[in-house]
Fold this protein.
Amino acid sequence: MGHLAGAEGITFCAAIRRLFDEHPPLRQQMDQMVLKAKQITSGVEQDLGVAIRELAEMEKKFKSELEPHSEREEGGLFPVLGRHIGTQFGPIAVMEYEHGEAKRNLALFEERMGEIGQSPAREQVQSVVSPLMTAIGILQEHFMKEENVLFPMAEKVLTEEEKEELLKLFDR
């Protein structure tokens, strides 16, 4: 698998392995949303109202699974790793910025979904779907950066005590 290239040969501690293992199911959901969005925007879907509500349900489920993952990173991995590499600049700052941009775009999708009503016009669809596609693009790249750079870096620089600390934080 290409997105695992940077992690080859690395054995992750339980906490980082957990974060790493949470990516594939999230990635699968993103792929399904992209497929659905393409069907909607290409005109394949005949009933736009039903199709776009299905997409909104997919996003809602995705977000409910993404949020705990993000919280483990923002409240655990990022500050603990930040003790070693700082948080104002560099990888942690980039990761936090990307989290913010993804959340902002998911919220914008939800806001626009709330504005279109039960029977959206075909010309409305692109502006509704666009922020969701932006969020997914951000998160796909974000996951690759974590898997290839951040997680291997954390595995190398965190102490055994910090790795245990992370696991305890995640299990709360």
Summary: Residues 13-170 form a domain with the Four Helix Bundle (Hemerythrin (Met), subunit A) fold (CATH 1.20.120.520).
